[in-house]
Amino acid sequence: MVNGSMYKYIDKSFNGDVVYTYVFPSKQINGLVFERETIPLDFPVIKEHVELDLAYLELSVLSTNTNVNWRVKVNGINITREFKPIVYSKIGNYLFTKHLFDITSVLKTPESMKRSRVNVTFKREGGQPIIIEQISIIALVKTIEAFSTVKYYTGCLTLEPGDETSLDIGFKQKDSLLRLTCFIPNKLAELLVNIDDKKTYRINNAHGMIDETIQASDLFEINNIKLKYVESSEKYLPREICLSNLIVLSSTYSKPDLFIEELDVPSRAKSSFKARIKIVNKGSSKPDKILLVVFNKGEIISSKSIQPVEPGGEIVEELVINQPPGQHNLVFRIIWRKLARMWFTEEKKNVIID
Fold it and tell me: Of 253, 285, 315, which one is at a domain's C-terminal end?
């Protein structure tokens, strides 16, 4: 039987972008003494040309009941002393409880604006032990360099094997992305995600909290999403799958478009050699950040942060690379970010080290 509910908290089209960050700590807070635990989340520093419009902190917590005394802080600022979930549903012997807080004003403080991380602190002050399963932040930032349409649902919707449910989305944008967070009880459990009876995606071989991203760029809209928990004879406990949140998003950008115009690397060298790389920006905006990374057999052997390049501009960088004797197939990758989006381009070079 399907239990619980999902609630829509964001439904908006605006000039700006959507930032989403999360961790799944599965951290138990209990013990004979009152415990305090601080868990950080990566969060990009808000740039001068960007304004923070809205930010929600989402918490998924397992507890045996709602008799919990706790305190939650964000960057040292109290946001609650009450354990009052917006909704909860049963998973095995636990309650999966969902908590949501508007932390816009907290993240707008001068101290928070300087940080590239958000610290969430939990202090249990009595009552039942708890397990922090999910901490996530969804933020809307305003800028003329992007346009986004987003719908954000959160709560807890639990399904047992054989259960099926659907959500009416009514998302009328193309090139969309569907992102969902679920609790999967066992690697043997399988969840089917169907979009408008046109595409079906399988989520399997997973355990615990997961973040699943589905690219729906070939669909012009998303009207309905069906979730089906595949029934099987496999035995495991707990049995319930829980949908924790759902984000449907479409964003277009004033895009920085970087190219490797020249890559000067010797075909034969000693153990130490110099690589010269020329990067040009053929796009319509400046990236927020550029990183040059060199790989050898999947391992990073060198990296360098590069000054962002203006549209139509170019930059030349040099790297000193050290490798042992032998033949090496090196990958030179340029990674750049604009707001919440990342891109990369790369070239390969063979080098023989004498």
Answer: 253
